[in-house]
Amino acid sequence: MTLHKGASDRDRSRQARPVNPFYGEADPVAGMDTSPPRHTLPEGPVAPHTAYQFVHDELMLDGNSRLNLATFVTTWMEPQAGILMSECRDKNMIDKDEYPLTAELERRCVAMLADLWHAPDPSTTVGCSTTGSSEACMLAGMAFKRRWSRRNADRYPATARPNLVMGANVQVCWEKFCTFWEVEARQVPMEGDRFHLDAASAAALCDENTIGVVAVLGSTFDGSYEPVAEICAALDALQERTGLDIPVHVDGASGAMIAPFLDPELVWDFRLPRVASINTSGHKYGLVYPGVGWALWRDEAALPEELVFRVNYLGGDMPTFALNFSRPGAQVAAQYYTFLRLGREGYRAVQQATRDVARSLAERIAAPGDFRLLTRGDQLPVFAFTTADGVTAFDVFDVSRRMKERGWLLPAYTFPPHREDLSVLRIVCRNGFSQDLADLFLADLESLLPELRRQPGPLNRPENVATAFHH
Ligand SMILES: *Cc1c(COP(=O)(O)O)cnc(C)c1O
After folding, report:
1. Which of 258, 362, 391, 394 could staple 398 via S-S, CB 3.0–4.6 A?
2. How many A from CA of 463 to the centre of ligand 1?
3. Alpha carbon of 72 to ligand 1 centroid (Å)
């Protein structure tokens, strides 16, 4: 038998071997009598259960996400999805060589979306996951800009300035894109009861410096679908007249996961040859916790090769198109789980239930006569409403504030140019906002109405709200 010799901690190399500082508990005997500083890094460590309790307790003051009717982002998933996500929380999406299966799930999701959105040849469609629609829109906008600048190398950057045509109702990500990438944002204002982009105005704003047109399915402001097919037809006519060939990007952050299931006859996707790219938010009606989005291009010609970076220092040689480098892989696994779990029929059932809640809630809100609906929740399961003509005792901001007392986050906001005079409330129905919760919401709203009607006039209107108070 081997004869072992003892070892001594006096051996300096052994003493100096570092361990993870998290392994020790700080002063477990005396505990703590002062709380750690909040705005400077504490001098030393505290025990994990103590740190947990500090953070947990402060977060109790955050709202209850299920009662948030402002957000489009998923606030409920099945427990199995939560388990899967926690199993994947150490996986880095960029390490495609270390996590080939996560990369494979991403590839399958892109293929499923290409098929869902009627790509002419799903095998040549290119796409990727992103942190959300904002990143996806940046990528799509960059592809537009690069395609245009290639075609106009004789004029850009010397004399020409690129522009992008969109409605004034676009989500802020498009204004960000234009600012960050130095593209002129050509916005079609709202007009009367037209609250989104229309085909004629879109075509009228295009010229030889237009890199593309953004059509939104559906609008963040009121849940309405923009007329994508009409916009494409107007651009076809423009091309016949002038030779200008302007591609369309569909910002389907919400609608690209609603329309394929609930409005299959609506033609808005790659069936329209002019649609070059589409994005959606996996974390909206894709039904996954934040943050995952998707960007797809019709074919490789729509995505200039020089924008695709190949990294080899993680092993392998992977083409990537992304703003970030590292990004969590858990959301992609959860997206694949949800696709597998629900299938087409499952998605249809979930979205239908959500839209049924939206439509009936919209009707019931309008019934007593205090409110006027702008949309009815029959496109996106989202609707906007304002106070009825002749209501002078309260405004939408009063309603929003009073509903907050009951825990509901019901946003009130003003519309973009030229309807800054219009202030609305908006309800985003999501999976998990059940008919039962909608009933409770309505009961709270109805119980407040008598008090609101007795007000002498609107109270505490935000200072930045324009003139006419009631709509
Ligand atoms: C939410 C939204 C975005 C931004 O999406 P994120 O996933 O939050 O980054 C862009 N466009 C539209 C139409 C949206 O509704």
Report:
1. 394
2. 27
3. 8
